[in-house]
Amino acid sequence: MTGRRQHYAHFYGLQPIPRDDRPLALVHGNCQAESLRVLLDGDASPVRTVRVPPVHELTAADLPHLDRLLAEVDVLVAQPVRDGYRGLPLGTAEVLGRAGRRPRIVVVPIIRWAALHPFSVIVRSPAGDPPLVPYHDLRTLALAAGRPALPESPSPDAVRAVRALSVRELHARQERHGALPVVDLLEAAGSGAVHTVNHPGNEVLTGLTRRVLAAAGLPGEPADPRRTLLDSVHTPVLPAVLAALGLGGAGRDHWLVHGRPLPDADVRAAQLRWYADHPGVAAAGLDRHAEAAAVLGTA
């Protein structure tokens, strides 16, 4: 028995699914989805939940276990996942269609919020993630790709323009998939909105969970997680960014990785070496995030 199977014991049938008169909810998606499940999982919660592997870790061998669970699901909370994801029937519509009973469906957006970290981006590459942290920095990408250098500190107008890009993209994602709104939660959370561009803070996740319950017609409140969710990595926050957004705080010039400080200079040096060993990744990353890079380059 592997540690992974023990971690997802209910999913793999190693332990029985908790049973009472509450509806069973399945939360389908990435690490944000698991955080929502944690906030839905409490003795006073109006639903029962089962911890399931994130969608990017599911394999063909996991499908019978997923189908067994889907046969009992009453509420499906799902991020938008395309049909045929990674060659498997794991798209949101596919999962809903394979459910044994017709569950209530609540779609939540995949949250990306660059307002606090305007240089930080995610780049999917066959080479995998860069070293030390799984995030790329547009300034480092520009250096590695031999492109014009980006300013180390962005102008106030550039910061606000990047925030506007995040707002626009999230609104588009919400409208395209019929997902619950989240932009107002991110704006209200201020400097606590996210730890990284794709790891929302507890305040945002709790607010979104409250909306999930309301959308599913289930009276109740999110559980208290008694910890900071999605806490593994915290991106540096520039004082100029906080000032441009009208937020308090002194910022932080280093990363936090599992609670330990990591100098940003060390991350840049390691990633520059990695880009040299993986030609084309830096240029592709800049092309993928060309609009943000162009805005930041107008400082």
Throw out a few tags for this protein:
12 helices; Rossmann fold; globular; 4-stranded parallel sheet; 299 residues; alpha/beta; single chain
Could you provide a short overview of the structure?
Helices cover 39% and strands 11% of the residues. The protein has 299 residues and is of the alpha/beta class.
Kindly describe this structure:
With 299 residues, this protein is an alpha/beta fold. The chain folds into two domains: 3-107 and 200-215, 3-Layer(aba) Sandwich (Rossmann fold); 120-173 and 235-296. It contains twelve helices and eleven strands. It has helices spanning 3-7, 31-40, 63-70, 92-98, 138-145, 156-177, 183-189, 202-215, 239-244, 264-277, 281-288, 290-296, and strands spanning 24-28, 48-49, 75-78, 104-107, 120-121, 136-137, 194-196, 199-200, 233-234, 254-257, 260-263. The protein has a four-stranded parallel beta sheet with strand order 2-1-3-4. Strands 9-10-11 form a three-stranded antiparallel beta sheet. Helix 5 packs parallel to helix 10 (264-277).
